[in-house]
Design goal:
- There is one protein chain.
- About 50% of the residues are buried.
- The chain starts with a strand and ends in a 9-residue tail after the last strand.
- It contains 6 helices and 9 strands.
- A 7-stranded parallel beta sheet has the order 3-2-1-4-5-6-9, with helices on both faces.
- By secondary structure, the protein is α/β, with parallel strands linked by helices.
- Helix 5 links the parallel strand 7 and strand 8.
Length: about 230
């Protein structure tokens, strides 16, 4: 069996680092994508998620390093949490460009590589459980709702190339994104404790498996059982 080759964006975040570590420990070959230049001995590429040219260059570079691309996982930098009356449009659109536009740019570039190689692949986007909306989360909710819709649309666009797309909606998990839960005074999960990025990473790794086949276009909530919605 060939080694899975995965590009993990947002590798400088808690979630992105956990996903990359889990895939590495599972025998995959990975490259991390950072949103800013950094010094590290690990194989990494750099791209502003809101810059289509930089994203395409990063995907090409990662593909060259690994000799192909089988999996893309998109994690995101920090969210914007602010009262609506105090939030500038620049802040609002900056978050949407980084998360929603970034998800599109990375998925588009990765799917083209997978299509041209004729091997297919899997794409897992990440989003926030606050696609349902929440106080002080106008930018987060707008971007998250867009990623939910994008996931289902990309599944139809990329399916004929044997590229499966799913997303994981994260909430009640100890990470940089915990500020979203705090902003909305979210209750504790039924189990009485928040989850970990390692738990989310294991769910994402499952969705990266090609053998899942028709399990595509789905939004998997990882929030300790708080969600009561179907998406």
């Amino acid at each position: 069996m060939s080694v899975c080759r995965a590009l993990v964006t947002g590798a400088e975040t808690d979630l992105g680092a956990a996903v990359r570590a889990h895939l590495d420990n599972s025998g995959a070959r990975t490259v991390g994508a950072h949103s800013r230049p950094c010094t590290t001995t690990d194989p990494v590429v750099h791209a502003d998620p809101a810059d289509a040219r930089q994203v395409r260059a990063a995907v090409r570079q990662a593909t060259d390093v690994m000799g192909g691309l089988d999996v893309l996982v998109v994690a995101h930098p920090l969210p914007v949490v602010a009262p609506l009356q105090e939030q500038s449009m620049a802040e609002f659109w900056s978050h949407i460009d980084t998360t929603l536009s970034g998800s599109f740019y990375y998925a588009q570039a990765a799917a083209e590589v997978m299509r041209d190689a004729g091997t297919g692949g899997r794409i897992v986007l990440t989003t926030s459980k606050w696609h349902v909306g929440g106080r002080n989360l106008s930018a987060v909710a707008t971007a998250a709702g867009g990623i939910v819709a994008l996931t289902k649309t990309l599944t139809r666009d990329f399916g004929r190339f044997r590229v499966g797309v799913n997303a994981v909606a994260v909430g009640a998990v100890n990470s940089e994104w915990s500020v979203c839960d705090a902003a909305t005074d979210a209750p504790m999960p039924p189990g009485g404790a928040c989850g970990s990025v390692d738990q989310v990473a294991r769910v994402i790794a499952l969705l990266c498996r090609h053998r899942l086949g028709a399990a595509v276009g789905q939004i998997v909530n990882v929030d300790g059982g708080l969600s009561r919605n179907r998406v």
